[in-house]
Structures
1.
Amino acid sequence: MSDLRERFQELADAGARHGRTPGPQAALRRARHRRLRLGLVGVTAAILVVAVVAVAVGTDRRARLVPLAPSGTTTASTVPPDVSILPDPGEVLRPAGSPPGQVGEQMVRDVATEVAGCLNGRLEEQTVLVAWGTAHRRTWLIAANPRPPGNGRLCWADGLFEASGAGGFSNNGALPLGSLRASGSSEIRDGDQYWGFVNGSVTKSATRVRVLFDLGIPPLDIEPIQSGDQFPVNFYAGWYRMPTRDKRPATWQVVRVVAYDAAGRQVAECRVGGPAGNC
Amino acid sequence: MARSESFEEFYTGTVGRLLGQLFVVTGDLHEAEEIVQEAFTRAAARWARLRDYDVPEAWVRRVAMNLAADRVRSLRRHTRAMRRLGPAGELPPVSVEALALAGALGTLPVRQRQVLVLHYLVDLPVGEVARTLDMPDGTVKSLLSRGRQALAARLGEAEEVLDPS
């Protein structure tokens, strides 16, 4: 073990020596391509947003533009998701009030690019920013393609970004849609407190998603985000407070997710990790 | 330092280093190539802002580490995706000792691998590793300790196999 650094360096040198990347021009072209294609989408979106808002003013639909209320069973030690969406996000490409500024634009592009990746890079396909929110100095987004590729699959992606625009995002479209899916992040620092984030897709029959954790973290109840008729599922997102530092392992704390319908009946369930893991 | 650099200069000066680091984290050269190129593509889109950072390479490394963790996480959670993994990742020719290290690293959780790489290879202090991975110092220390123990145990086994005497 005394030569650990040397062995690491040898491995890295081998990777650097034998690895092949397309070069800086390819990265610049790809970045420019994304900007241009998604810029066109953005212009179309802006026109649609203006049209939708104009209609909404006339019909008092703006009254419905309220954040989702926290579920009645959300425990005191967790925080409900900071969700703000249009009443019918399927009508617009991007909801009014998308993440602000150039960094926000870039976040939308990053997630939309992930959706396009599921569509074999077809950026001309419509991508809908289904929902986004901010909490704990992070911005999360969920975007999807309203035209399901079929075979029980839907092209959708989620992202979680810092204020600088750095972050992680993933394309979920390569996986079977299922009635309940969950993914997320942990170890998200905000001051002295650490948070975990969970999001996913859920069958439309569900009116409540309950996330169960290990380490004694209280369950978190989340109201699904209504995605509209053009999507076969709804989505959900929520934050949970992580245990104190010395009790916190470096693993995801979500162990099980359960969906309930309006009558309180369980309509879907998935487990995280282990041989039975199917989230 | 980076203020007068063009993106091309920045890319050329850092891509090999980042590729090596991500290769050690992922254990797969092709995956490391894809992750690093994607991280640079995102950097290219933000270069007007990133070029004024003191160390833009740290931003790219951070994005690449996030991408690596995301890939592992999404693969781990879906058995179907696991089946798509296919054969073990591509390894360039290295010494027996480095090969043993690559094998041992492959058995560790991705966060442990990342912490070990950032500390031992990139030579970042614990606090900087914590900032890069957005986790507390204590967690980094714990992951380093557990990672070292796990590597010692696995490399010990590997050495017995490689050298029965």
Note: Confidence is low (pLDDT under 50) at residues 75-88, 158-165 of chain B.
2.
Amino acid sequence: MSVLVILERHRMAGEALAAGREFAAALGVPLAAAEQPEAAYTADGYTAAYEALIREKNPTLVLFAHTYQTRDYAPKLATRFGKTLISDVIAARFDGAGPIFVRQLFQGKFNADVRAAGSGPHFVSVQAGAWRAAPTEDGSIEKFTPSVDAAASRQKAEAPFRESARAVDLTQAPIIVSVGRGIQEQSNIPVVEKLAAALGAELAASRPICDAGWLPMERQVGSSGQTVAPKLYVAVGISGAIQHLVGMKGSKVIVAINKDPHAPIFEAADYGIVGDLFEVVPALVEAIGKAKG
Amino acid sequence: MKIAVAIKQVPLRDSPLKAAASGLWIDEAGLSYEINEPDAYALEEALQLREKHGGEVIVVCAGPERAGQSIREALAKGADRALHVRDELAGLDTLGVARLLAAALKAEAPDLILTGLQSDDLGYGQTGVVLAELLGLPHSTIIMRVEVNGASVRVKRELEDGWFQHIEMPLPAVLTIQSGLNKLRYATLMGIKKAKTKEVKVLTAAELGGLTPATAVIEKIYAPHKTKQAQIFEGDAKTAATQLVEKLKFEARVL
């Protein structure tokens, strides 16, 4: 009986450990951790390695950071134990009947209380930013390193690469104006360009805008793009899907402009205007001009 | 080659949603539905692979009767035939649904199975991976490019922070497709007409090994608690914009 945290070599490892510490205390069981093996990642290789470790240690709960690597193999691992991975969890509660995990549905429009039914091990991954990272160099935690049989993997992985040097470093921008699906068409992009110019901001976008080629991929903010924390982040026509929020919720001041008052972006925002961006943004450009002039 | 695409039907993007009285799911009354967007990209990729390599594209979808409309849409876009796991599936978790899909696909023995990387409703993001495990097939996720070379497939997998990786694996295999890797096609009038005559095989859960109780059980859904109270400015655009700029300048001091 324990909580076993899978420590990936990733900036989120400390967050998973912090969640693990909370869950272990609530369940009254020891905390243990599994270091990432030296062998390069493959889904087959890591699944087999962690499966053997979990069968040996028999933890109550196996905890992951919700990273791309976790998404690639943790569901496979959970399936071997007859479980669904309860993924992308933002909070947890514990009652007599066992743990309840809170996760988002419908791109953040709802939360759901999800009970891990039956006996363990249960498999849970935690969302980026949901727990404050704990130091992973903690001698008080028992640590294991699973061994990987790389030859047994059907996936043959090549070395990771980048497409090109990133010309735009959004992480250094003090002000960012970011645009989402609400802009409707590529020909409307100048509407937000004017706002960026008025604020002296870098222009950024949510994933669908870059997928459509309306702005280059290097201007994408979110889990698959850049993670930013400017002093001012203005989200225009962005609904606020989880994948976007994790890339910008550390911003000091967040402004949201969206026609849907229930858009999840307003949950993250400090200031908001509910309205048609094609009316609001030009008015904002004018008001900024006056305030600065 | 034989390519299967697992699609899910979800409420139309930006539908106004409210929780059902039961608190267990959304109120579905009056909602319109569409193919889960990431799955639409998986379907498009399958159609393009068929154009290149020949063969057939089979759509598989688990859902109630209304899902038949999304299946017809996939057929209208060019899929050859479909399997509809038509049953009351509420309360099943990912593993429960994937078991039904796996049982339906087993008899078909496709060379390649594609699906979107996640659903816009539950968002677990695991159906493809679980399907691969249940069928004993290799897989890879969040795929940006697919190259079939005889008996194997080489894919470009998206990693975080702008990194990618090439992975090669033998066929048959399962891939989860990243949105935006191709350009979605619209159904043509001819396609819509032809779809009406294409085969949709209906299967029940009982025929596919039955329903397995969920291990991830939704007990309640609710609007998120506000952790942060945004100051919202309403009224006409000009007034709201002026008020916002005042706040940014004098309260937040970021201008």
Note: Chain A has a mean pLDDT of 94.
3.
Amino acid sequence: MLRYILLRLVLLVPVMLGVSLLVFVLLHLGSTDPALDYLRLSHIPPTDAAIAEVRHALGLDRPLYAQYLSWLWKALQLDFGTSYLTGRPVFDDLLYYLPATLQLGGLALACTLLLSIPLGLVAARWQGRWPDHAVRAVTFLGVSMPNFWLAFLLIALFSLWLGWLPPLGRGGAGHLVMPVLAIALMSMSINARLLRASLLEASGQRHVTYARARGLPARQVWGSHVLRNAWLPLVTATGMHIGELIGGALVIETIFAWPGVGRFAVSAVLNRDFPVMQCFTLLLTGLLMVCNLVVDVCYAWLDPRSRLEGVSA
Amino acid sequence: MQQPGNRKRALWGLLLLAASTFVNAEDATQNAPTLVYSWPVNAGPLDPRGYAPNQMYAQAMVYEPLVRYSASGTIEPWLATAWQVSDDGKVYTFTLRDGVRFSDGTAFDAAAAKANLDAVLANSQRHRWMELVTTLDHVEAPDRLTLRLVLKHPYYPTLMELAQVRPLRFGSPQAKPGEPAGTGPWMRVDSRLGEYDRFARNPLYWGPTPAYGEVLVKVIPDPNSRALALQTGELQLIQGAAGEITASTFVRLRDQGFATALSAPLATRSVAMNTGRGATRDLAVRQAINQAVNKQAIIDKILYGLEPRADTLFAPNMPYADLGLEPYAYDPALAARQLDAAGWRLAPGNTVRSKGGEPLSIELVFLGTSALQKSLAEVLQGELAKAGMHIELRAVEEGALVRRQRDGDFGMIFADTWGAPYDPHSFVSSMRYAGHADYMAQRGLPIKDQLDQRIGQVLASTDEQQRAEHYRFILTTLHQQAVYLPISYLTAISVRRDSVAHVQFGSTLFDVPFETMTPQQEH
């Protein structure tokens, strides 16, 4: 098992290298020019001389391979360059903004799990009855509603009409409620539906029928035979939701003026701040790969069959 | 044995008194009201000569110019109380205001002012977009309160450019890194990345003390969130000319009863036409375009009626621009007659006019990521189609747009003027240089050389009357030659809660005069 984890960690290196090269090439081969954004934001007319001056200052006038190699060499020393727009070290800024995003993402993940599991259980346990219909209505709404729209509806309801919650910014617990809900609702809905489906599938399997035939109490049948098997898809889905939660944070942080990496990255994309975009993509890639690894390890722990396959792999 | 106890009590009494004074002093600053404003990003390091990420609204709060640009386009004394210009227009001698100190306690005198301007000259490559920087030869400080600017050649907009927010304002030469100090009414006391910047009034300010004790500027990037924050009371003021909220949101807030205001014209939203290429080479076509577009309908439908209609390249409130030029009135019938007379005829069954086999087709280039330009382009296309002109819309991204401006690769292109205080002199000056859309648009004019010559003359002119005459020639020629289709005048917007009074606009696109605003009881 340890060997497997180590192998996966080692594999991170070529993947990160590949991603960095791909992102670099895609950014620089486009017809966009960050020098123009710099001049626009500086309110300086974009004359040829001004563009050349800024391109030189930003190091964009060097050959592409030289730019990449110098970036890579520095990146290996955890120096991801300075932002074109703020002039501040990119890695420092990302680390500065990361805790706020992890707080939001972590709570959204917790919220997803805490809400989706009971909802999925209720829906499966009373399949076809009113609790199932109610859960279906909620999850249907959650899956179909874009998170930014939900965010504005929440602000309108809780801040504007009721005046219960602050509309934006980071501060006390009150500031967390709406952004966390806006980010979590979709994952929560998907997970609830998924859990319901896999519970129903598991409960139809033969070993469950035999368990019932053996006269085991319903609680034990559900706990030891149905749930145990139904968890697995949920674990996979949760791993995938981590990416979704961070993706959701991009938009939601901008709406709630939340000082996190998502908002930082959105502003970098809008203003073609290449160093920030590169570092953010790598950070996200690393984060998702580690999450996938954790999911796989959980999987192995929950399901001995995959553990054996994993070891042989 | 009594005495030590008494001393102790006296000491405690003194301590308590001192503590209470301290608490009172704390209260005094805490009780002075705070104005809450917002901006999409942090104010930046606040370098008086820095560009992005330094935000101009914040630089204008902290740093002050020698002379100030007023909303009516005139120049007022500021850190300089008086000035003289030599007869040859090459030496500007300023008398500095006495008793002015930077917020770090350093005196503002001629030496400090010279140090700032020398720093600009030492880095002139970076600032050469501003013509004064390339024109300035050297700076002298003959005595404590006299500052002399010696130019290489006469340049009349010297005072206008000194008034700009950067790079010719003054920071303390003794300022420590990360602790910017200017002479302005405000100083930054706190900043949290991604959250806010807090400005407190400068206790050493030479002018009237602002009514607000602090200005808290929250970082809010999203315009809709900004509007909601105002509605919930998290913000007290939305003001600016950089799309702080959309026009529709402005109208909604106004309808909900918030106090709103629009500034005087600050710049012009216009379309430049290429006189050197395609159908727009023909004066009749350019004039017909000016007559065939219903600007008021565009303003009402797309701009929510918020911007005044523009009939000339510069608004009459800009310096030298109040010339009484006769507008091209909206008259589609006249446009059609004019096109017919010029030989652009509509063949039976056709919807597009043509002349000698060449269809009247013009490529309109716009920034594809700008929803507003896209809407304007589509309406222009519809309006001109009614007059038998085919407008081919070409959405491009920013880099391509600049390349097309530089190469003159357009039939028509959106080209807003630069706004106060750059208009008209800096904008007109740029018309002489290849690489500007305006140069490329005008290069087909038979009198382009003469026009450029007059622009050179107006900038070097030392005689007020002569200057006005040059401007009359330049602006009248551009108007008569219909090089531009002015659409509307850009304005700054302001929406406030009742808790803020005396809200005024700055005289440029970039400043917000918080120091004039006063708190009042919210109804």
Note: Residues 1-5, 13-29 of chain B have pLDDT under 50 and may be disordered.
4.
Amino acid sequence: MDLSAISPTLLVASLMVAATPILLAAIGELVVEKSGVLNLGVEGMMITGAISGFAAAVLTGSPMIGFLCAALGGAALSVIFAIITQYFLSNQVATGLALTLFGLGLSAMLGQSYVGIKPPASAKLDLPLVSDIPVIGPILFSHDFTVYAALTLVTGVWWFLKYTRGGLILRAVGESHDAAHALGYKVVRVRILAIMFGGACAGLGGAALSLVRVPQWTEGMTAGAGWIALAIVVFASWKPARVLLGAYLFGGVAVLQLNLQAAGVSIPVEYLSMSPYLITIVVLVVMSANRSKSALNAPAALGRVFHASR
Amino acid sequence: MKLKSILAGAALAISAATGSLADKTKVGFVYVGPVGDMGWSYEHDQGRKAVDAAFGDKVETFYVESVPEGPDSERVMTNMALKGADLIFTTSFGYMDPTINVAAKFPNVKFEHATGYKQSDNVSVYSARFYEGRAVQGHIAGHMTKSNIVGYIGSVPIPEVIRGINAAYIHAKEVNPDVQFKIIWIYDWFDPAKEADAAKVLIEQGADVVLQHTDSTAPQAAAQAAGNVITFGQASDMAAYSPKPRVSSIIDNWGPYYIARTQAVMDGTWTSTSTWDGIGSGMVGIGEITSAVPAEVKASAEALRDSLADGSYHTFTGPLNKQDGSVWLKAGETAADYGPEGLAEMLFYLEGLDGEVPN
């Protein structure tokens, strides 16, 4: 056993990279749920984004176009969900599950000819001098675009929900769609925009996986990351800053487990792989034990169908 | 219900009729990964294509890719047998018991299971001595590492993988006594995301050589991004990453074996056999050693390869001790293939390796 081989600096730097896909997907889903919609299709949108981004990047040779197409791909898939749940008033849970299954199948089909191909490398931030500062350099100034995009999005969402009129409207729609409707806000329009934003974020998260973290395309490569993102939103009790914490915690355990193995620590890896899920379950139990508090946090109209009768 | 069973009966009759009319030998392949993995399953599929090319109209080959090891593979094999396959190649260790089970139900279908050790009247086993290739990789790794840390991405802790680790380690140590191996198990044959993470962690912990016993090119990509790290192609040449990080490779060459076995089924001479071939027969190929390796290291690696090929040297030649210090092979003794201390069931590390073999 040689724990000194694990460098805390590199550990933090790599957990940020490992957490980025789930962070992107989770912050998108947070906005969706704040508007009162429960979209369980995150996994499907992520993997669709992963393949659309990968294909676009390979075809054009530009990772940035890849990320753009990934966001568009995820958003396009979410439009299906938006139309079915907002206009045809279908059950959101069932529709979301169907969207995940559809996304997994669709991506496998689209990805047939992309297996085993090398994508163009996405550039890393490399500022002279600044990136070389010990500790701070590797952690803050030497990542690729997606890490910064994710952090910017989290800050942006926090600011939008807390300080803007648009954020207030979004939250109003999520708390009581009838009241918001009575005040003259377009409930369906707000929700569709939120769903599309969630889809775009999930797609971006998928591309962070297929273009940066792996980088390669494989069928089913998200391997449950979308579900983890969903759990993190609940874990974070719908607060952007806590989504960041949850995602980094999750990424941290995933990276730490590999580090401990390489350092020769003989803890069965199964326990470590299990721990983030266990923590999520514990948090969910604690939250639901205290009804009044969790009721304050969850958007009151979450998952409820809105039908304007007047 | 009635209509359905009539239709099913009719379909069966038609397929049986066309099958006997065409009189083709049908050969099925079960793959653990996608054929586009550019590693293990890709090379098996190259073998299938070689069978197609060798026999033309006389054979019909088909395959199912990404079949999980375990019960689901039994369903796939049963399906193939019901479709009229005469010969079925099951190409991963985890298909061992499913193959035996399905073979018992279809005594007229011949089965060939790769890398396992359970045989029966209609199940042959075949494998390649990949560890001979690992010895060459270890030799190069020992010479090339500057940090004296070699990273190793293990897939599933079975004898084949453990043999590879041991073979690489003793040959790295032979040329570099200070070398240390760091091993990460990912418990899967093909998972690019985990393979990439494992490679990155090994590199962060100082490894400047990464060996992999997993089937994707993700570790190669991670090594390329890191810069001064070398890797070896696994199962397939992975030449897209040469001359660096990929400096050499182990190439599985199944074509000749698959052609011979298909021929045996056609001639009616097929019997249950156990085949275990290495560099000598060409079943294990060593990919070109690139210019990133100094000429003298390349020459000594090629000499090692040739001595393994002509049988003048055995990968595991004593004196060798087990990890706990007890004697495994005395001086000059070579490892037996089978038996309690044999290579086929090697589940222990050799002296000098850290960590434990996981269960």
Note: The longest strand of chain B covers residues 246-252.
